[in-house]
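Re: weekly structure request thread

Next one in the queue (398 aa):
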Amino acid sequence: MKQALSPMGLLCWPTMLAPWILSIGGGCASGTSVTPVGETTIEVTPRAALAAEQLLKHSKYREAVAAYDAYVRVSPGDLQALYNRAYALHQLGKMEEAEAGYRSVLERDPQAIDAAINLAACLQADQQHSRAEEVLVAVENGLGNEFEHPELLHSLAQTQRLQEKYEEASRTVRRLLTRFPKYVRGHELLAAIAIDQGEFNRAHTILANALKLGGEEAQSNPVIPLYHGLAFQAQGHKQQAFASFERALAIDASHIEARFRLGVFALHCGHYSLAAESLKLVKEAEPNYEVVLGYGFALRGLRRWREAAETLEEARALLANRLQHQDKEKEDGSILQELVVIYQLLGEWSIALRYADQYLLTVNRTCLDDEHDGFCGRYNGIKLMLKMGSGSAQSEGR
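Done, posted below.
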């Protein structure tokens, strides 16, 4: 049976288009004030709008939102300002407000391509892939067959892929590449679909073809060796996988996904020093649950017990807001078991017992006093150590 990697495991962070480049059906350019329909359109470049745009360009998103709030109160018809405000909210992680902002733009101009793509990204982040597809299809249908936008088609194919509609996604990408054969991201997505389906040799072929067609842009693109690495990893070719991940980082040392993949693969291969080094860098830039959890396991592998415990506790805190209830219980139970073991090794029996009790509560089970197999054996052993008075003063005081 072919092993299919999870779609979210292959650079499926939602694609966002940058601000101040809004593709408006009516031809609105950056910084242009658009008056309501039925009035005369007067192109001006308000100083307040330019100030807000500068804040956005310098990634000062909170300040940009405040500036755009003030500006759109007096110029509510400026679609570029509305789009940029939604983009700033998106960057701040305020997805509901960003979604409302993008929808506001689309209500005024149903052919606002960039707003549709970023709205789809919001919906994808909330796992609402079918709704994201509906948004993109509506815009594409409104544009007609004569107009094809590469980013729109790419976003649509990605959304189809996330729903595991691999045949539809492949057709959309091929339609994209027929019109734009040198569009490197299209080849990357086609390779990702092949990897999802367990067709690893086909993925290598697609990526090699991207290098031939894409020229200098493809040669300097870290995603191509990264995808080679993911395919090699799935095939069990460890040396080629490591070499591919390192090649991606040689092209772009700051590429978060390549650094993360290298760290996770190193962790699975037992190379804990490399894993800890890589995942620490990723954690500093993108401290999400998977990254923090992986870093905690790498520290555990290095026997840096105290740091491992603190990092796994941090992962638990992130998990609380990350997963649905059923998945949360399963994941949380695994982390709790690790924390029990670590605090045993640290000799901090009271803390170990506290986490053991939390684990039993999480998985809805109990341990009889005479059970000595598996987790219950460990649990009763901890209780015995505390009964014998071996708990340290430090652990009692925490």
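Residues 1-14, 20-45, 391-398 have pLDDT under 50 and may be disordered. The radius of gyration is 25 Å.
Next request, please.
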